[in-house]
Write a structure and sequence with these properties.
The protein is 23% helix and 17% strand. It has seven helices and eleven strands. A five-stranded mixed β-sheet has the order 4-3-2-1-5.
Length: 367
């Protein structure tokens, strides 16, 4: 989708408070004006699409005349991205090591210069094809997925060790999270623990991901919470903690979770959210309840629009098996308010239509 000059990313806000920022990332927009160095970041290394393109060149009949050969790219602010290596199954096993090296190099350059930094480091692992570095192949004895998980853990540890060695732990906020739950691709299918479902659904197995935040001296260690935090909240929260001003002239979906993270309050500032798959509302989550309008448990299951919504108590029924709507219709009120409020926000500020070219400048209502 287009990311015109009206669209603020976290990198845009950080640049306004004169902080250096860098990104080593796995997925981004490859459209003109949409790469990360057009959105406030100083430098970028990664792939412009999903890592699922890495098997292309090994596929029987692959024709680069009809589908472009995937490449790893890099760019700097104000420059066009340039192609590096072909992103094939060999590089798929090696890219994590290079992402980590570049991330540490970026941070090291800024620490030496006495400059704060913002580094966004989303690994390609454990997205399919889940292929570990040769040094980790067979390491766990539990297959490629476990080996790849061990590799990712190793690279996270390298970054944390470097931060510790530099003596900047108390000045560095570290967030570890994921964009979705386990995939449905064999033989690399992940595991959602007690929750049901896979990614691209509204099941808890799709929505629940690890979220770990570390800031020694500010955020107490060892805390565990089942409160709701949405990934969009990181935009608002980290921007505020960094001293940036959140735009007031548009609707911002993320809520500020700083007080919750800092231990100033026991509850999250978010009670729920609508669960869309594509542009279809599949469910609404409110506190420990989930109200389903469309039922789809796994990625390849056909979605079924329900005549009557299904309601699940996620504490008593984490796998979402027992429909308890008949005795708990009161939950419809807070759940539907979340859906209605979000729909009202879309009417006030309509989504950018698919295929809209950059640069995109939304119209503003007259004051």
């Amino acid at each position: 989708m287009p990311d015109g000059s009206e669209s603020d990313c976290l990198g845009d806000l950080v640049v306004r408070i004169s902080r250096k920022r860098g990104q080593n990332q796995r997925v981004g927009s490859g459209t003109p004006g949409g790469v990360t160095t057009d959105q406030g970041f100083d430098e970028w290394y990664g792939i412009p699409n999903s890592t699922s393109v890495s098997p292309w060149t090994s596929s029987v009949g692959f024709d680069p005349q009809v589908a472009p050969t995937p490449h790893i790219l890099e760019s700097r602010r104000g420059e066009k991205p340039r192609k590096l290596e072909v992103y094939d199954l060999k590089m798929r096993r090696l890219i994590e090591t290079e992402i980590t090296r570049r991330a540490i190099d970026f941070m090291e350059r800024n620490v030496r210069a006495g400059k704060p930094f913002y580094a966004y480091v989303p690994f390609t692992l454990v997205h399919y094809p889940t292929l570990p570095h040769p040094d980790f192949a067979g390491k766990t004895g539990y297959g490629e997925f476990a080996d790849a998980l061990a590799e990712m853990d190793h690279h996270v540890g390298q970054i944390l060790d470097w931060i510790h060695q530099q003596g900047i732990e108390q000045k560095t906020i570290v967030v570890f999270t994921s964009d979705n739950g386990p995939e449905e691709m064999l033989p690399w299918r992940g595991w959602a623990g007690p929750w049901s479902g896979s990614y691209f659904t509204a099941m808890e197995g799709s929505l629940r991901v690890p979220f770990i935040i570390r800031w020694p001296g500010k955020i107490a260690a060892g805390q565990v919470s089942n409160e709701i935090v949405h990934e969009v909240d990181t935009f608002t929260t980290l921007a505020r903690l960094a001293g940036a001003e959140i735009p007031q002239d548009r609707i911002i979906d993320g809520v500020d979770q700083a007080a919750f993270f800092l231990g100033k309050q026991p509850k999250s500032n978010r009670e729920g959210f609508p669960c869309y798959v594509g542009d279809t509302l599949h469910a609404v989550k409110w506190r420990n309840w989930k109200l389903h309008f469309v039922w789809q448990e796994y990625f390849y299951d056909p979605p079924q629009r329900l005549t009557n919504p299904r309601l699940h108590n996620l504490i008593e029924d984490p796998k979402e098996r027992n429909n308890v709507a008949a005795m708990n219709t009161w939950v419809y009120h807070p759940a539907m308010k979340i859906a209605d409020d979000f729909q009202a926000s879309l009417k006030k500020e309509p989504p950018i239509p698919a295929g809209t070219p950059d640069p995109y400048e939304p119209s503003r209502p007259n004051p």
